[in-house]
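User: I'm curious what two different proteins look like when written out as structure tokens. Can you demonstrate?

Assistant: Sure. I'll show them one after the other, since each token string lines up with its own sequence. Here's the first protein:
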Amino acid sequence: MGLVRLRLARFGRRNLPFYRITAADSRAPRDGKHLEVVGHYNPLPGKDGLKRIGINTERIKYWLSVGAQPSDPVARLLHLVGLMPKPPASFVARKGPPPSPKKQRTVAAAE
């Protein structure tokens, strides 16, 4: 068995996602075979305007203690619950060529 990852498995239907937080082999597909379901996450706000997160903290602590690595989204969720420190901010590279000097001058002039 390879590295165990704590990651999200997508359920629900089109435009209404629902995720289960699972402990799975890193080589398994996203929605494929998992070792254990350790929580759930509903990113759509309910009638009260809050997103739903349900986590089995004992099992999460167990999997982290035996070396499971959380994926980036799961690490963010675990930080919100208070089980992990804040993950480092990920840098998102801009796609495409760098802006031309002409566009930079017009942006600077507008400021």
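Here's a second, unrelated protein for contrast:
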Amino acid sequence: MSPWVEWNDGGELAEFLHPRILRSPEPTGKESEVKPHDAEKDAITLLVDPSVLNTLSEGMGIAGTWVQLSRLPSADKKGKKSKAPPTSYWYVQEVSASIPSFWTVPEVIPPQI
């Protein structure tokens, strides 16, 4: 999935117009080894229960609380760090809104005086 930025919510979902990143309440000290997520540019890999797949379609939006699962960089038996980027998956902890791909907001025309 990729970010949906600069969309017109029609005044319906103001709290979701700009992403907010919440941090883990208990830092492990290894967070600096993982590239920070850019919520306005980075695509994500979403973990989905197979029974939910038929309700999703390309172009739709999902607003809610997203949780990132990241594997920290690992070292091989000789202590060398892996060159592969750490694996990262996401799941939705709480869905607040699902937005259809055909979402439109009527243009407000000021009244004529």
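A detail about the second structure: The chain has a mean pLDDT of 77.
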